[in-house]
Amino acid sequence: MTGSAIVQLAYLASAVLFIFGLRELSHPDTARRGNALASLGMLLAIVTTLVGQEILSFTWIIVGGLAGGLTGLYLARTVEMTEMPQMVAVFNGFGGGASALVAGAEYLKILGFGVGASAAGAGGAGALSALPVDTGVSIMAGTLIGAVTFSGSWVAFAKLQGHLDQPVTYPLQQTSNLAILLAAVAASVLLVAAPPADAALVYLGLAAVALLLGVLVVIPIGGADMPVVVALLNSYSGLAASAAGFVLTNMALIISGALVGASGLILTAIMCRAMNRSLANVLFGAFGGGGGPATGAAETGERSVAEIDAENLAMMMAYARQVVIVPGYGLAVAQAQHAVKELAMNLTERGVTVKFAIHPVAGRMPGHMNVLLAEADVPYDMLFEPEDVNPEMPNTDVALVVGANDVVNPSARDEADSPIAGMPIVEVDRAEHSVVIKRSLSTGFAGIDNPLFYKDNNRMFFGDAAKKIPELVQELKEV
Ligand code: TAP
What we know:
- The protein is α/β, with parallel strands linked by helices.
- It is built from 17 helices and 6 strands.
- A 6-stranded parallel beta sheet has the order 3-2-1-4-5-6.
- Helix 14 links the parallel strand 2 (about 355) and strand 3.
- The relative contact order is 0.09.
- Bound molecules: 7-thionicotinamide-adenine-dinucleotide phosphate.
- 7-thionicotinamide-adenine-dinucleotide phosphate binds next to helix 8, helix 12, strand 5 and helix 17.
């Protein structure tokens, strides 16, 4: 067998490991094994590339690997759980940026710049003939998609970090974005089919325009829709990597990029469904300020809420037949997952049926609540989707909301003009009693008031979940 055939076989094996890894990642029980399989696939792909391909300089690879590895290690150790979406946005951005750089390096090499340049361009000036269509299309796709992903991801980062609260809109916004996109595609066609004398300059201009486009397409999107946008940018980063794979004729990169592209698209569709929005509505709807704790009528004192203390809540829960716990972003902030597990176990030991209702967009990243509860070893068979638990709400004695807000907001179901109208919710207001643990009446991520707090069958248990849950567990032990 030739060396090249061995390389291709090794790449194929790593692609198979990626696919099986993804398959296993689709269930919490097998997710760790899936992660290990995919990591093994990546190791195999890296080793194959290092030993089997033409590596120009191991020095640069080691320098790059150390710089990237140490940055990743630092970020992974210091980033708070609540800042994960920002980190994912940045990772997507780096992925897109890296692909654009690979495409750019290859194009400039063809033009005659740098190490390993072909003679064709002879310094970048003069008569450069048309590029082969496959190479040209791959380079331009890698550049456009990669650069849009890079700058768009940084805007998404700024929005998630709360630096850019409001959607930025202006007249003819979508039309002008479309015009810029068409101009960029036209320039790409020109650079491939009939490269002008100053092709390098035009190419750099194209990359700059693509970066601008990334900013312009993400700024009008509301903060509340950022989960969908981050998933979409993740998909773009995969497509850009796949294009870079075609540029380098690297099969592992083509396949893994395609996998990221496809799974990112599936995740985007799942997020859209979870929020009951169409992708077009997300991209062009400019919905939701996002981020800050805006205050609504809730804090003007127009309506009143009823409170409950730990002792009475403990009594209510101890004698319940069924309790549904709805975790939200506040649980992650409070890091109260271990205390919640203790609460659930205490109740279970008393014969109370305890179910966790996990909303797909609870928290700030896909699977956020699953990860938190898995960390505390909450059994998977206690976790339920809203559609499974909602029909049981009328037979539920207590629905305990821990640091959730938007995902239990009944206005999504009851008010056609609500900004979150149509978003599926966990219908805690249909339980016999609902109790909300949060520190104040301030709003959640979508920045809208929550009528649940003022309902007759609702009680507020005000405070930080980090303190309130242990207080409740303590009272329960005394019942
Ligand atoms: P939110 O609606 O954001 O509400 C979280 C609530 O937690 C806040 O109202 C806050 O109220 C409370 N809280 C904060 N710290 C707390 C603490 N230490 N103890 C107790 N409560 C605390 O959360 P949700 O219901 O999980 O909904 C998620 C929202 O985020 C949705 O709008 C979703 O679209 C959006 N989003 C989701 C994702 C993904 S992929 N999951 C990504 C980005 C955005 P107080 O300040 O009064 O305590």
